[in-house]
Amino acid sequence: MEIKSINQLKSLLDENKISVKEIAQTYIKKIKEKKDLNIFIYFDEDKINDQVKEIEKLPNNKKLKGIPIAVKDLFCTKNMPTTAASKILENFNPTYESFVTQKLINEGSLFVGKTNLDEFAMGSATNTSYFGNTINPLSNKDNPLAPGGSSGGSAAAVAADLCLGSTGTDTGGSIRQPASFCGVVGIKPTYGLCSRWGIAAFASSLDQAGIFSKNVTDASILLEEIAGHDERDSTSSNVAIPNYSKKFNSDLTGKTIGIPKEYTVDGISDEINAVWEDAIKSLEKKGARIKHISLPHTKYALPTYYIIAPAEASSNLARYDGVKYGFRADEAKSLDEMYEMTRSEGFGKEVKRRILIGTYVLSAGYYDAYYLKAQKVRKLIANDFVETFKECDLILTPTAPSAAFPLNEKQDDPIKMYLNDVFTVPASLAGIPGISIPYGKDKNGLPLGMQLLGKHFNEQEVFNAAFALEKDYE
Amino acid sequence: MSNLLKGNKYEWEIVIGLEIHAQVKSNSKLFSNSSTAFGSKPNSQVSLVDAAMPGMLPVINSYCVEQAIKTGIGLNAEINNYSVFDRKNYFYADLPQGYQISQYKFPIVGEGKVSIDFKDGSSKDIRIVRLHLEQDAGKSLHDQNPTKTYVDLNRSGVALMEIVSEPDIRSAEEAGLYISKIRSILMYLDTCDGNMQEGSLRADVNISVRRPGEEYGTRCEIKNLNSIKFIKQAINYEAKRQIEILEEGGIIEQNTLLFNTNSGKTRPMRSKEEAHDYRYFPDPDLLPLEIDQKVIDKLVKSIPELPDERKRKYVEEYNLSNYDASVLTADKSVSDFFDRVINSDNLLKDSAKIVVNWITSELFSLLKENNIEIAHSPISPEHLGRMVKLIKEDIISGKIAKDVLIEMFESKAGPEIIIEKKGLRQLTNTNEIENIVDEVLQENKKMVEQYLSGKDKLLGFFVGQSMKKSKGKANPKILNDILKIKLSKKN
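YS: structure for the whole thing
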């Protein structure tokens, strides 16, 4: 019996056609079969079986009872170690549960494991992990592909059918881009919709938790559960969370969809542009009005992001110093030497690169030229969206400039790798919600993704349009 | 008053600015709910946030914000409706986050001023640049193990107010008066417990010297001084050191110094070249602090009477000198005690000076000998008030009163009981005193003769003998008068 969606699995459970234990066994088997893809950093059958006993005791009206969920290994979890894919947190066992994962536990979800990611979520291919690459489940044997990143493990887990949904975090595209690469749905909600409490920080003003799933309905069901105000996160917003899926409306009559000209960049394949055209037509069919718009500061988004994010990261990662927890180099002879050795050995190349960039842009004499300037540009970019949303309800763009690329490509060229985020970064800087849904394929049959961006806290409208697009594509 | 310091060649002016770090009086830390109690078991008051565990976030403690605003009001300073928390980045073992959350460009409190009082009755304003909120670090313990350093994070995250003065201070004495004044204001406001021994109030001293009329010299910063005595010692030592270097044609290097309390000398901690680049930037985990004017207005109304107001009242209503009034008001508990004495009986308002003398001399020395705070004085303000009244009414003499006071201190009893029980009531009955005088003159006939032949100084001897005979109870004025009359009659 094929498990396809959250609602279907819930019906099966309600009708006693499947038990939580059987769900667990089904997924344990699948995960073991796909071990070669290196999707999980942590997977432990016993831990899953322990949860089964607890979940079975819960009443059936728990919204996610028995739903198999994979958790990005950036979320601190009490019952499973948390590494952030870094040697520096190898063997770190939090004594606390992140806000997001706690909410999922409260509703009875079954955590199948902790998924691989780029170290501290810094990367676009899940290839900077201390625990090795994750392989895109859509690859064929001769040509292993990257799953995208940084939440590549979580995207791959859904794509490989090793869970029904997974958590991710998106700082500059870390949910949307891997969703696109793996052919799944991925939503990054408005900054502040989900609490960051218990998520190892990369760039605090950009980090936002979100969801991967097989379809838009499941994404909305899961997002509804993990959203909500948390007084332990000063940047978490106190807004009412609607029951998104109950309010789905795929009739887009009266809605205006903006098509930004700045997202037609050089080097993007005709295939992607063609798919974009198809998606535009599809939305028109649903009654939407199409408007060609301009987001004039888009071209500054990437450099702005690669100043602000590393600046915050350089400070956020200072706590990993070998003093309190995690890895400590033990041959050091002085405190300074301990820091140097611990952090040199404990962090990977990409993390160190970003710490150095961040330290540089915050240094005396460079702060005004880089960090302060970047903050000003960030405001301009955010304002582009504010202006645009006065005349549009949503914006439609491709999610990424390409389909999944081969595993070893771009490995040695950070700039090329950073270009992957070109379509996702502006929304991150503006803090607005964005979803990527699979739409169309390239000439090799690899999935492409369309990105829908909406107004602050208007996830409902984003879901509606995504739902319409998804139905049409199916 | 001239504050110039004489070198071998020239006279020098010392220029001092202070950065005072005052621990906010609050049950919980600035960004977490852990306790701030002093002296607890190491690492027993450390939350996940204080230990900087992955994914932990700071949440501002609004009580600490209110305390900072109240302090700003008490320092006659501007309160900023908009302020920002920044990260000050540096690595140290007792700094778990790898940065201290502080305020850099936009502090919560802006410019203010406090006034300091000198013994000669004059006073001077010291301008305040700013006050900002920041977290304290933990404590590194280097003396627990020969090869290891231990870290205690109980203090990590405790709220501090950094109060920065303009370089308006010109001597060690002024620095001492300034820090006492700040301490006193904070204690009146109840925003800091003022306990310097426990480190609740510490200061960094910025000091330079110049010849009068010249530009400011290069300054050095002496870090982390926790007593007024050490602050003064450090300033005097450092000023002399700088003057010697300059007079020998050297130049002052801008250094951060530590003061060794044993040797009384400063030594370099780090030079300007080694100075940290703290890479301040706004903390993205915290929103800017926006304070409604209504909140500030409400806090203004909650401000208690401060030392300067009390001082004015003492001078105007009780005719105390400026200096006496500032000594009294420096310590809120002393001033409170004085107020209670004065308010215990309307008649005492005219004897305020006598009350001050009894508090600052006899009571202080008793308290000091027994190591008791005035707030816990065994002699209640009401008892002291009654004792002063008994002196005024000639029931006891000032001399006897000193013994009564000791008795009151030991027994906690009221003065009347002690006087009655011990029969210390002053002799004012002239007949009785006459009898005593007669006896003394009778017993010392030779002395009387000498006196009569011109040795006037012997009057004191007769007073002493008579007083002794009366067991100290004779009213000195009456005794004197009677003696003079009787002796003149013998002539």
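YS: worth flagging: The mean pLDDT of chain B is 93.
IM: good catch. Also DSSP finds 15 helices and 16 strands in chain B.
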